Amino acid sequence: MITNNPYYTKQHAIRANSRQTRIPNSSVATMNVITVFEHQRLTVHDFLHASDFDWLMVQEFAVFTIKRKQGQWQLKVGHYIGIILLPSGITLEILPKLNQSTQSNDIVQTRHWVQGMLSDLIHLDTRNNRKLPNTKNFGQFSPQSTPLALKVLPISDWLIEQFLQRLMDYQPTKHYQAQIENQASLQGRLLIKEQLRHNSMQPHKFICESSVLSHDMLANRLIKSALVYLMPLLPQFISSKLLQPWQQVSTLNNCEMQQIAVIYAQAKRQLDVQPLQKQKLHAAQQLVDLAYWLLKQTTAATGNGIDPNRQNCSQLRLCLLIDMNQAFEQWASQRIASMFQQISSSYRPFYQTQSVWLNDAEGLACLSIRPDLLIFKTVSDDCQNQNDIASHQTKAKNKTKGHYSHVIDIKWKYLPHAAAISASDAYQLTSYAQAYLAGQIWLVYPVLGSDRQPVALKQQTHYGSNDSVSSDNIKNNESADAHLWLMPFDVLTGTLNGEVLPHLDKA
User: Tell me, what DSSP letter sits at residue 499?
Assistant: First the structure.
């Protein structure tokens, strides 16, 4: 095999039979799961089976950076979370890291809030096919403070549990589908154009369209494909039993997988017209949503979907990897937007809205900016006299008028204190303040717990030694400056810390 992987150009400098398997200090291995964290460096000694490390080296996943240090190969975990099923049958679980140690309590806590985040993200992708989360979840996460379970499932087991819970309440339903066949007898509706085009030389054949009652509706095929995708994580006797009712349902082909979003939309429309009770229809929709989200992850450019023709890989293996930068931004943006909308309906969120920032002398766009979240406040609530007809008319006219009250940028990075903010992030905040003329500019970052509070950033204005600049002008300029804030987002509760939100109407 020809490869650019340097691991194999050294003729396996480290051989499997010379290795001692052990549980690493920075990892926890329980049952069939090895748990590691973002940015962790892995060596062959961090695996229970040396062959698993070899296999990961060959795959060259984008989630890992391959380096050789101190005479041994290393895999550095990137900013991804998720699971990889290794050839030995052990699952590699990758969790996010927020300045935490690797004690078992930290793993339990991290799994808990990650499962809540994933619940939101699943519904995000499925509701509107936009890369923004939805606050609805599977019941695994609540903003209420509840004691953690003694044992929180690994991500792989949690996904299996979520899927199987919904699968048990759903049986593949039949659906009338149009079927076109070139057959020896006239059955169904004759397609005249197709008949003339294809059967002019064989008049004994008929191209007909007929409606056939079949289990092969798109919703069923989507679910079946996700079920097959999760099979490697299930014991053989369980997987065989689960597949039994789905024998007559085919999986999605490669072409359909490339258009998974279109297939999902069609599947949802087909499901909506099925004669199902409201409760069963809702359960079926949730199952299709989860199936779609799982399958969509396989198309990510992170190494998901392993080439079966490559060495040491006789079959596709489950690999679900999620960009943590994007996931946190998606999750926090919708959570924060929901907080605004609970305060007042006049707050309207806009996600990832691109705007021209710099033009040249001819008016052509040079640079654009795209904040993670814009909060637009309409002027409709400014009507003082709600009983006045004229006020109502003005309110209707100015329905869409208002201003940007908040510009919010969301970063998945650890900030131990305010001075740790990077220059590029600070420049970005001030650029947003200038471009949108918003009163509040926030940089949202993740924290564990409620100890960290919002920090106001004061912009310093340097006027030089010009004595003509009056103190009144200085005060006016300072009052016109936007308020820059470092806003801690508690991942344990999915909310912002501090008492900023109750005062939003004064912003």
Answer: S
Residue 331 has pLDDT above 90, yes or no: yes
pLDDT for res 124: 66
Letter string b/e over residues 281-290, b meaning 16 or more CB atoms within 10 A of that residue's CB: eebbbbbbbb
Assigned token pair, 230: 């999760």
Q: How confident is the model at residue 318 (pLDDT cuts 50, 70, 90)?
A: confident
100-103 long-range Cβ contacts below 8 angstroms, 24+ apart: 100/37, 100/448, 102/25, 102/26, 102/27, 102/28, 102/37
Alpha carbon distance 160, 156 (integer Å):
6
Q: In this structure, what are the phi and psi dihedrals at residue 457, rounded to the nearest 5 degrees?
A: -105, 125
Q: Is the pTM of this model over 0.70?
A: yes
Q: What is the predicted pLDDT for the residue at 236?
A: 73
Q: Which residues contact 75 (CB under 8 A, 6 or more apart)?
A: 41, 42, 43, 53, 56, 57, 64, 65, 66
Using an 8 Å Cβ cutoff, are 177 and 210 in contact? no
**Per mean pLDDT, which range of 41-50, 198-207, 409-418, 472-481 is the poorest?**
472-481
SS3 assignment, position 245 = helix
> What are residue 41's DSSP bridge partners?
76
Q: What are phi and psi of 124, to 5 degrees?
A: -60, -55
Residues whose CB falls within 8 Å of the CB of residue 412, separated by 6 or more in sequence, listed in order: 79, 96, 324, 325, 327, 328, 329, 445, 446
Q: Pick the residue with more confidence: 114 or 319?
A: 114
> DSSP 3-state assignment of 418?
helix
What is the C-alpha to C-alpha distance for residues 21 and 24, in angstroms, rounded to an integer?
9
What would the two tokens of residue 56 be? Answer: 């990961």
Categorise residue 411: left if φ over 0, alpha if ψ from -120 to 50, beta otherwise. beta
Q: Is the pLDDT assigned to residue 507 strictly greater than 70?
A: no
Residue of higher predicted confidence among 468 and 157: 157
CA dist list (Å): 347 to 211, 341, 404, 491, 502: 49, 6, 9, 23, 13
109: tokens are 């806590």
Please give, one letter per residue, the 3-state secondary structure of 340-370: HHHHCCCEEEEECCCEEEEECCCCCEEEEEC
User: Token digits for 252?
Assistant: 């999605």
**Which residue type occupies 436?**
Y
In contact, 83 and 320? CB cutoff 8 Å = yes
Using only C-alpha atoms, the chain has a radius of gyration, in whole angstroms, of 28
pLDDT in tens, 425-441: 988 888 888 888 888 89
